[in-house]
Design goal:
single chain; about 300 residues; alpha/beta; Rossmann fold; 2 domains; four-stranded parallel sheet
């Protein structure tokens, strides 16, 4: 765990849950260390709703409230594959904002259960169209009732990547004492890679930014996109990552089991995929200080097949 300083405590007292987002611990992954190459992960399940999505959700909410786009009974509308919706539901409830989410119908039952517990209005969308289809439905709802909804659209909202520019990047640089040599993060909305990558490119130009994505359009890595086969988010900047790696679902599932049984870390599939990408990168290096993002824990995925193999 980390020690909260006086400034952090003051922020939490003034902003409630919004002020408690970030400052997550950096965990060494001893299992994956290769010679003089060390790997660390930001444990994002320490955020209020349990995932890295609290960072952009808080930034989007804060910006919309400050600009007046939210208020007067307007409803925050967005699409989600799960974690962003849970982040919205958690943080919006704390500031009295109602939300309406579009969600692929095949999203995990635990995710749906959490959202229902918060009283979230859900519109379930065609599972075959995935997160892109959910986004199209949200856009249509916003167009039909523009006075009712504030359409957050996390895929095009600059507050998404700015959240990571303003929090994730500085935290990592401080956590590592400037020793970071490589930053590894997955491509979903792409906000984490773009925001953190932009910050590190400016503040520590020697750091290499490494993105990763599923190795094909059909995969089991919830929250991640294979960009060549998907609608590319408007906030994505292809000039930020120095390279993009590909990770298979099978390798990520095997890594999830290994992290749980050998490192004591129960993580979700996208976090396991991050560990695979970081491990593959480490194999190519003689020395290095790699930092990646563990987006969430494995608690919402216990009903998935990745735990069934021995």
């Amino acid at each position: 765990m980390y020690d909260m300083n006086v400034s952090t405590i003051h922020t939490i007292q003034n902003e409630g849950l919004l002020g408690s987002v970030g400052n997550t611990p950096l965990i060494p992954l001893r299992l994956l260390q290769v010679g003089a190459v060390e790997i660390f992960a930001k444990a994002e399940w320490h955020n209020p709703s349990g995932s890295v999505k609290d960072r952009p959700a808080a930034a989007i909410l804060r910006a919309a409230l400050e600009s007046g786009e939210l208020g007067g009974g307007r409803v925050l509308l967005d699409s989600t594959s799960g974690n962003m919706g849970i982040a919205y539901a958690t943080l919006a409830a704390s500031v009295g904002v109602s939300i309406h989410l579009t969600l692929p119908a095949n999203a995990g039952e635990s995710r749906k259960g959490i959202l229902h517990a918060f009283g979230t209005k859900l519109t379930l969308t065609d599972p075959l169209e995935g997160s892109d289809g959910a986004r199209r439905v949200a856009a249509a709802l916003a167009a039909e009732q523009p006075d009712r909804y504030f359409y957050a659209d996390q895929y095009s909202n600059p507050a998404n990547w700015r959240a990571h520019f303003e929090t994730t990047g500085p935290e990592i640089l401080e956590d590592t004492g400037g020793k970071i040599t490589h930053f590894v993060a997955g491509l979903g909305t792409t906000g984490t890679v773009v925001g953190t990558g932009r910050y590190l490119r400016e503040a520590a130009p020697g750091v290499e930014i490494v993105a990763f994505q599923p190795d094909g359009p059909l995969h089991g890595l919830e929250g991640l996109k294979n960009l060549p086969s998907s609608d590319v988010p408007e906030i994505f900047d292809p000039l930020v990552p120095h390279q993009i790696l590909e990770v298979s679902t099978e390798a990520a599932y095997a890594m999830a089991r290994r992290l749980a049984r050998e490192e004591g870390l129960l993580v979700g599939p996208s976090s396991a995929a991050a560990a695979v990408a970081a491990s593959e990168l480490a194999q190519r290096l003689d020395t290095g200080h790699i930092v990646t993002i563990f987006a969430d824990s494995g608690l919402k995925y216990l009903d998935q097949a990745m735990w069934s193999e021995t």
